[in-house]
């Protein structure tokens, strides 16, 4: 079970909340084990769109596997006043310090910045706010014109609908491409939007083609990326020769089957390392015999 806690500020943008909430709620319907909680400093939160939202005022007990998300609020210009009091800020800091993940949509990055969670990290936000946040948090590195960025369990996304992309990315990393694709299809969402090139889910990024053979082989690799997969075995599954498989797969995805598997392993390893595993433990978990190959891939 993974608890997803949405921390709501006044003048909340509904889609900043509803987009990622729908992703995780749909994942819950598919048995992915998400439990959603809505939290605010007051029992009723006014929204920018005029529909009030009811929320709890008591923080639940959280573990390192849980995610705290701060959706954005209406902010043509950021206020000098903090969106939350010190008690909520302390909770955000403590959750990350304990090994948990925190995320933001749009101006929600300002709340993370006020907690010091952006310092020394890369992050993004809505394009209208990048200059202001860059000036406000000089110890952090703003990444402009991308959909989302993940850095040491701090995941930030751009404005409004990009929260859906962020949430689908997190589902793909935790549960695989098939689960994320099911959620996206159920939501009638085009799932191929990239975030930051180095952080976006490889499982989604290379699924935008229309080649059935490549999709079938990707399904196998997605499920068994930690196993030793021989090209001959994949070719047998696809019903073609090794040479034909490599040609068709590369034309569809831009990668060879081996390179695609390596990307999946690398992405999962980065997720594990970000949650406190050593490089050696992460390498073993994703199927490398030792950490040398993982270190070489990370260095690239």
Automatic annotation (TrEMBL):
Q: In this protein, which residues make up the domain named HTH araC/xylS-type?
A: 215-300
Q: Which PANTHER family match?
A: ARAC-FAMILY TRANSCRIPTIONAL REGULATOR (PTHR43130), HTH-TYPE TRANSCRIPTIONAL REGULATOR RV1931C (PTHR43130:SF3)
Name of the protein this chain belongs to:
GlxA family transcriptional regulator
Source organism (scientific name): Kribbella deserti
Q: Which keywords annotate this record?
A: Transcription, Transcription regulation
Q: Which PROSITE patterns match?
A: HTH_ARAC_FAMILY_2
Q: Give the matching Pfam families.
A: DJ-1_PfpI, HTH_18
């Amino acid at each position: 079970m993974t608890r997803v806690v949405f921390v709501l500020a006044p003048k909340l943008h509904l889609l900043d909340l509803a987009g990622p909430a729908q992703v995780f709620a749909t994942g819950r319907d598919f048995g992915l084990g998400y439990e959603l909680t809505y939290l605010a400093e007051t029992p009723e939160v006014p929204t920018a769109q005029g529909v009030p939202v009811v929320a709890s005022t008591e923080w639940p007990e959280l573990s390192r596997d849980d995610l705290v998300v701060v959706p954005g609020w209406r902010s043509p210009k950021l206020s000098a006043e903090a969106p939350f009091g010190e008690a909520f800020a302390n909770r955000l800091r403590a959750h990350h310090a304990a090994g948990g993940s925190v995320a933001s949509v749009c101006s929600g990055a300002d709340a993370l910045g006020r907690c010091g969670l952006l310092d020394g990290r890369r992050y993004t936000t809505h394009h209208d706010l990048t200059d202001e946040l860059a000036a406000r948090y000089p110890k952090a590195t703003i990444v402009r014109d991308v959909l989302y960025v993940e850095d040491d369990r701090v995941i930030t996304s751009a404005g409004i609908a990009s929260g859906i992309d962020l949430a689908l990315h997190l589902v793909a990393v935790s549960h695989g491409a098939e689960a994320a694709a099911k959620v996206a299809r159920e939501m009638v969402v085009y799932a191929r939007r990239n975030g930051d090139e180095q952080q976006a889910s490889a499982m989604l990024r290379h699924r935008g083609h229309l080649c059935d053979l490549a999709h079938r082989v990707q399904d196998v690799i997605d499920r068994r990326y930690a196993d030793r997969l021989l090209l001959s075995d994949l070719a047998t599954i696809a019903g073609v020769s090794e040479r034909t498989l490599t040609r068709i797969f590369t034309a569809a995805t831009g990668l060879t089957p081996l390179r695609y598997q390596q990307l999946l392993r690398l992405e999962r390893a980065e997720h594990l390392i970000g949650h406190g595993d050593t490089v050696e433990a992460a390498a073993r978990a994703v199927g490398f015999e030792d950490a040398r190959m993982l270190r070489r891939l990370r260095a690239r």
